[in-house]
Amino acid sequence: MEWDAWGLGEFRKQLSPQVLGLLRAALGVDAAQTAPPEESTVTLRPSTLTDAQRADLHTRLGAENVHTDEGTRLRHAGGKSTPDLLRRKDTGAQDAPDAVVLPGSHTEILGLLRWCADQRIAVVPFGGGTSVVGGLDPVRGEFAAVLALDLRRLDSLLDLDPVSGIAVLQAGLTGPQAEELLGARGFSLGHFPQSFQFATIGGFAATRSSGQASAGYGRFDDMVERVVVATPAGTLDLGRGPASAAGPDLRELVVGSEGTFGVITEVAVRVHRVPETTAYRAWSFPDFDTGATALRSVVQAGAAPTVLRLSDEAETGVNLALAGDIGGESPTSGCLAITTFEGTSDHVRARSAEAGALLAAAGGTDLGDGPARSWEHGRFDAPYQRDALLAAGATVETLETATHWSNLTTLRSAVTTALTESLAAQGTPPLVMCHISHTYPTGASLYFTVVCGQTADPLAQWAAAKRAAGDAIVAAGGTITHHHAVGRDHRPWMADEVGDLGTTVLRAVKEALDPVGILNPGKLIP
Amino acid sequence: MEWDAWGLGEFRKQLSPQVLGLLRAALGVDAAQTAPPEESTVTLRPSTLTDAQRADLHTRLGAENVHTDEGTRLRHAGGKSTPDLLRRKDTGAQDAPDAVVLPGSHTEILGLLRWCADQRIAVVPFGGGTSVVGGLDPVRGEFAAVLALDLRRLDSLLDLDPVSGIAVLQAGLTGPQAEELLGARGFSLGHFPQSFQFATIGGFAATRSSGQASAGYGRFDDMVERVVVATPAGTLDLGRGPASAAGPDLRELVVGSEGTFGVITEVAVRVHRVPETTAYRAWSFPDFDTGATALRSVVQAGAAPTVLRLSDEAETGVNLALAGDIGGESPTSGCLAITTFEGTSDHVRARSAEAGALLAAAGGTDLGDGPARSWEHGRFDAPYQRDALLAAGATVETLETATHWSNLTTLRSAVTTALTESLAAQGTPPLVMCHISHTYPTGASLYFTVVCGQTADPLAQWAAAKRAAGDAIVAAGGTITHHHAVGRDHRPWMADEVGDLGTTVLRAVKEALDPVGILNPGKLIP
Question: Are residues A512 and B508, on separate chains, in Cβ contact within 8 Å?
Fold first, then answer.
């Protein structure tokens, strides 16, 4: 990925003159397209590794797998949140890992972690580099140096059991790499988060990722059958069957541990045969609450769509604008809902009919397949659009939560109000958009996108808004994160999430697996 | 429940002369119906509580909630496994808790646990008393006394959110109590394990229970939205939404903890509206492997039955015999499969048609609804039948495991062989029956029922067979328990299940929550 933006440079977006005009009119963004900074102007804090440590690493991993050049360090200096990208523009000395190491096996990682514990060097496990919660910040904690442990060399499909539908994947495989290896055998994982194109299997597990087809295939944590973890205290190999009553499910302790307990090296996941057919159907609802109630009726009936999502009025309108459709015929004036169904023709026909009847009965207007196909076509574009808006002088960021159905309206309103009030008080009243992208029988996620003008200090501007939103989420009974994970940015709310005694439990597990505390200090655990 | 048998005396079964004849002919069981022992002949080890401790308990809980009489202690002396019932026949001094206490609230339990830690008194949390893995054995460990903490007074439906489909239930509610409270409001939990009639909500959570409708409504661990736990170190209150990426899922550490980390006092669970209709359909398959492949096709297609199970040839035949059908027309000579479907008429029709087409294509013969309705009618009877066979001089016990589909035949064969060889070597060649009662996209459970003649020491006889079966399960890649939990009986295999480092993690969590170690010593954690 680019060092200062999401994704690949070739896919960078340009905003149309109409959108720039809208930005100016609605949010006061002056839309002066400033040239992006040159990489050559960036200065990194020098590496603190000693020559002896560097030589040790060369011996352990091979010199070609130990990088201390500025370009590699810069590309491991953080994730891809808006604050991350703003920090990349800093003209002072930027923080970065002291080295980037690329071990080639579980055994090498085990040895490396022990060596790091001995040397008192912190370790940040690094998958696709797509964190938007500060999970990759090169925090040293109490240690003199920090390594980014890049897992890209662990990129094999180790096994595929076609009868059980289980693939054993190494942690460094990216979403597309895994799908390609599985697709060649007629299988698919079906896990398509926004970060899909770059994020890795290990990262999906470490952060409890949830994909756009979660209604059909479940969250990534649901897909994990077995997980292998290298820790400073040795290897954890957890999961002996499709389900078990043999005590606490320790897989669920590793899944979501964000590199603070160990490095996930291998994951056995549930896969399915590439579906015979996919049906697409979009719907329009007059307002968000009506749409949400309709989605609830579908998921509570078990009508089993593969994708089920709903944008509010603002997001529906803006997405159309960004897609270049301004002036064209708008497919909906209200809230756009997307459904897809995968499986055999008969299976798809039955589910689609059941869901369609429920959505229509709940007030939906059938828009046909077009808008659903358009959504799928552009579904990985949002981060590129975010970058184009950032470059145009807007502050743009997303955040997300989840709650029970009965609390959805309250939570949405609380977060919208908190964001609006915080940013308005800073002189930059925002546009706040919201969608539901993940549904469960008992509740749903809420995903917010915020756009406003930039103040002179956009990092401080967003930090204040984020603090207000996080406090509002917790006060209104939501979870501080539905699928972005905790990292550094959500850590202040972890005690609200699990309580003081839950925090004590997390620390006890950390102490058992990583007694020196080298793994991802400053993340997740308060 | 009866002190020396499963369930209520009024439902005790009598074996028909034909079945007794079969037992004699097939297994050499002489079928002499011995009179059950009288309760008055049982001697218990005297309570070791001091007068001061008893007075303290009276002050804390009220004298009426502290029982040291022999009848109450005897009824809390263990669970309902075959070894438990054999131990109840012991004419020497039997072990039992030193007192049975009935706290009335979470707060009382918190205080009680702190008092027990101070006094160095062990605590066995006690729900419905249905453990079949020694989870309720009154083990003192290093302590001078042990209390059974009976949760029956925590029997309220605290809240029902009809929009989200979430009920907040106190831990001491039994299955029927919970269903009655929910049913009055039009809802159902849909959790019907064999122990349903007596087991409790807290017990379901503490042991990762799985019900007969798990194909439709999931395992109990899937249903848990939130769990509240009293520990010696304070209260855990875990679960803030339908799903979260806020770190490790600590609910999954409490669920399955079998009273070793704390006492579950309250559980918020997913519930659903009482279904409009239920469709029943039974199928016959020529052999077990053909039937298993058929079930796999249904679950992997997402055809979503509510119940999906398959008995092997032996179980199919014996169940018919026990149901009094000997001589009647047998509905199937092969392997009987049961399906049910719940929901609206349209929903049920579509699922039933899809599953039916898959089962027929895989070699199934449609037997209509009769055998499926019969199965449902008698589905809680098996433990009564076990007791009747025990009384007739047979050794009868069950055990269960799970594995991935590709390993199912191997595992079934390994367990069958281990049980057969162990019991044959003891001079009592057994009948080993097997069924699949829980299916997942990636695998299924295997539930074994073993019947053979009794040796002079049936406890030792079964201990040897159980050891052989457990070793075979672990060697063949199964989990040591799919839904019976670990307790004392499966503890020898826990290190195989989670590894040495997993054991270290369990001990670290235990130390954080129960530093004195009073909670259910000798259970679960090796």
Answer: yes
The pairs formed by B105-109 with CB atoms below 8 angstroms and a separation of 24 or more are B105/B154, B105/B265, B106/B154, B106/B228, B106/B230, B106/B235, B106/B265, B106/B266, B108/B60, B108/B61, B109/B149, B109/B230, B109/B263, B109/B265
CA dihedral A172, A175, A178, A184 (to 10 degrees): -160
- The alpha carbon of residue A137 and the mean position of all alpha carbons in its chain are separated, in whole angstroms, by 15
Interchain contact A294–B (C-beta under 8 A):
no
What's the rounded Cα separation, in Å, for the pair B523 and B84? Answer: 15
What would the DSSP string read from start to end of B60-80? Answer: HH-GGGEE-SHHHHHTTS---
pLDDT of residue B322: 67
Strand B277-285 relative to strand B335-343: parallel, antiparallel, unpaired?
antiparallel
Give strand pairing partners of A236: A229
**In whole numbers, what is the pLDDT of chain B averaged over residues?**
95
Measured CA angle at B30 (ends B24, B32), to 5 deg: 130
* Side-chain half-sphere exposure of A146, counting CA atoms within 13 A: 27
Any bridge partners for residue A122, and if so which? A146
- ∠ CA A120-A126-A128, nearest 5°, is 175
Task: Return the structure tokens found at B499.
Answer: 């590894």
Q: Cα–Cα distance between B317 and B338 in angstroms, integer? A: 15
Helices (H), A364-479: 370-377, 382-391, 408-425, 458-475
**C-beta of residue B193 within 8 angstroms of C-beta of residue B167:** no
Write out the H or E segment, with its range, that includes residue B22.
helix B17-27
User: B376-424: per-residue pLDDT in tens?
Assistant: 988 898 899 899 999 999 999 999 999 999 999 999 999 999 999 999 9
What is the Cα–Cα distance from A389 to A338, expressed in whole angstroms? 25
- Which of B113, B159, B164 to probe the A interface (max A CBs under 10 A)? B164
Q: Which pTM was predicted? A: 0.97
Query: Which H or E element spans position B221?
Result: helix B220-223
Helix (H/G/I), strand (E/B), else coil: A356: helix
| pLDDT greater than 70 at residue A260 | yes
CA–CA separation, B434 and B432 (whole Å): 7
pLDDT in tens, B482-506: 999 999 999 999 999 999 999 999 9
Tell me: the pLDDT tens digits for B430-453?
999 999 999 999 999 999 999 999
Give residue for tokens 């059908």: B325
Put simply, the answer to whether B501 touches A236 (Cβ < 8 Å) is yes
CA-wise closest residue to B482 among B127, B219, B270, B217:
B219
Query: Out of B163, B219, B231, whose CB is closest to A243?
Result: B219
Burial readout A370-392 (b: 16 or more C-beta within 10 A, e: otherwise): ebbbbbbeebbbbbbbbbbbbbb
Taking CA A412 as the corner, what is the angle to CA A408 and CA A414, rounded to the nearest 5 degrees? 120
Beta-carbon count within 10 A of B398 CB? 17
- N- to C-terminal Cα separation, chain B: 30
**A218: number of Cβ within 10 Å:** 18
* Type of residue at A119: Q
Residue A437 pLDDT exceeds 70: yes
| B504 contacts chain A (CB < 8 A) | yes
Rounded-to-integer distance, Cα A384 and Cα A13, Å: 6
Q: Which residue among B161, B244, B482 places its CB closest to the CB of A244? A: B482
Q: What is residue A510's predicted lDDT score, i.e. its pLDDT?
A: 98
Half-sphere exposure of B50 (CA within 13 A, CB side): 8
Query: Letter for the amino acid at A445?
Result: S
Per-residue pLDDT, B442: 98
Catalytic annotation on A447?
yes
Q: Tell me how far apart the alpha carbons of residues A517 and A506 are, in angstroms, rounded to a whole number.
A: 13
